[in-house]
Request: fold
Amino acid sequence: MVLQGYDYLLGFLLISCLVPVLALTASYFVRPKGGGAFRETTYESGVEPRGPKGGAWIQFNIRYYMFALVFVIFDVETVFLYPWAVAFSKLGLFAFIEALIFIAILVVGLVYAWRKGALEWT
Amino acid sequence: MNEPIDLGNSFAEAVAGFGIPADLARVLWMPIPMLVVILSASVAVLLSVWAERKWSAYMQQRLGPTVAGLNGFMQGVADGAKLLVKEDVIPRKGDPWLFTFGPVIIIIPIFFAYLVIPFGQGLVISDLAIGIFFFVAISSVAPIGALMAGYASNNKYALLGGLRAAAQGISYELPLALSILSIVMMSNSLSTVDIVNMQSTHGILSWNILKPGVGQIGFVIFLISALAETERAPFDLPEAESELVQGHHTEYSGMKFALFYLAEYANLVLGSLVASILFLGGWSFIVPMGTVANLLGIDPLDPAFQVFSALLGIVMTIAKATLFVFLAILARWTLPRVRIDQLLDLGWKFLLPLALFNLLLTAALKLAFPAFFGG
Reply:
């Protein structure tokens, strides 16, 4: 009963996967081939970029990881709040106070990350 | 009130005349709505590409495309056909597998998310019980594709673009999900069909955007976050052409580039549809259909009236979505690009606390005035 309509989900996933497959296959048969070594060089100023392997697979800004970590915490929180929101009208005041405490704890976490400078981009 | 038209059952009854059993008819019916949705989404993409170029041209006192088709409305088709016959270049230093799968992983979830979009009463591929949650979950897959594409290109511009796309995608995922959550709370359901049904009881007065306080705050949060999720100006940092060339698209050519392009506009149309479902009552007309029938003196169960209201529902959905596409295009050609620190500040330090506040406000209002906020 609860798991209704998932046969369509599977079917639609297959059809959605067909979109890029068909597009790339169609292109494979009509596009010109050949090209040459110069076309496969990295898009840069015209000079081949130098580096360990001459590429961009190098260290990058740690900030991206910080945001990803904070994101994971809050995303899990949001997932926990979904069932609460759906059932809220049946649960009433008790659920409201519980969610208030839950969100307050997470806001403390957000304030901590904020004060620690995890949300700063400098 | 009026029963939704069940096209699946009508199909089964129609083919039963040829001696086809009901089970087989169901299997035969399954791909039809899916293909219709995929094709309509593609047509919507072509039309919004044309609309974007035409409207932006008018904003800058140009004419825009005029050659391909009447007033250039076939421009999208012409672009697609051109990209189809272009050479596929994979950078020698890149990772060929990730390079190919990047655009594929971006485009599949965007089309897949059309599964739960109702285009009218009963006109939804599958009314999943987790409807809108499915949309939130599936739409968070796309940043992985951007990251793959950026990394696989082995190009500094592309890598930075991919990283920015991922950072932006995850930062605005949270306010987006939380603003949807307050709508879910007012609808008591995650199903997109229930969310629209909740808004069609009193016509325009029951639309979520007119719920005092929470409707407007939630709408603004959703609009900004959805715009950021589509990676369009003013939030087009991942492809910021004046600093990163084209971001993670830099090394792409031919059909793979076309997939990125298709994904961007399909995402724009998807976001507009979701916004109209969540806040503007989806397929519901400004006056309830029962009242319209009474005013015209028609029985609401009259088949002709049913067909009329179904068609009106589709028109309303498309009209509301077009409004949002228009707003997004207007924003793109009006506003300057934000910096990355401004982008992340807006998401984390303004929208996220505001969205949490909005959620608690919804809960409090629901406790205080259950009748107005969905019992």
User: Anything to note?
Assistant: Helices of chain A lie at 6-30, 63-91, 93-115.
